[in-house]
Write a structure and sequence with these properties.
globular
Length: 196
């Protein structure tokens, strides 16, 4: 399942996220996988999206980082789909029981055995992360910035795959290199070992 969480803004129309979505779709189909896609800005059926999550073995979330998080339309998608899925289809509550109300918060996910991968685009350069001398993130990693998205996925029992990022896409873009790195990333994460 590939979820495109991009929103069109006057300064960014979402073309790069759509191109990455298409490249992922082409990659998976070329490797014999069946792919379903959702584009949140175009609308969605909540029950179908829950069914898509239940069906998928891997969920790829493709989105631009906007104000240090997901765009508003993707957050709305999460609010709509994930809240409805708390009826047992995506999780059975928050994992706690009346016998142990203080233990196992966040461990009630129904999507165990499935993976997810974040693929993001952002204006910040790669050098802004993982460097304590950089004053804004002060040494934080990109995945630390994306912690709320990772915790949402973990809440449903999903296991993280390595994150992909296209950095500095507005002030210093190198889109051809981003596409090459993305294809290499998909290959390294999803390569199927030879039988033998």
């Amino acid at each position: 399942l590939i979820i495109n969480g991009a929103v069109s803004y006057p300064f960014a129309k979402g073309a790069l996220n759509s191109a990455l979505e298409q490249k992922a779709c082409t990659y998976f189909e070329a490797n014999g996988d069946t792919v379903r896609t959702s584009n949140v800005i175009k609308g969605y059926d909540v029950d179908q999206e829950i069914a898509n999550h239940q069906w998928a073995d891997t969920i790829l979330m493709q989105f631009p980082i906007n104000w240090m998080t997901v765009p508003w339309a993707f957050k709305k998608y999460m609010d709509d789909v994930y809240t409805a899925g708390m009826d047992g289809r995506l999780c059975a509550g928050d994992g706690r029981t009346s016998e142990a109300p203080k233990a196992n918060y966040g461990m009630g996910g129904a999507l165990t055995g499935k993976n997810y991968m974040l693929s993001v685009t952002l204006n910040a350069p790669a050098e802004a992360f993982d460097d304590p001398s950089e004053p804004f993130f002060e040494g934080l990693s990109l995945d630390a910035l994306l912690a709320p998205v990772h915790f949402n996925a973990k809440f449903f029992g999903l296991k993280a795959l390595p994150t992909f990022a296209a950095f500095d896409v507005m002030k210093n873009p190198d889109i051809d290199s981003d596409f090459e790195r993305f294809e290499a990333h998909l290959h390294s994460v999803f390569i199927k070992p030879e039988a033998g």
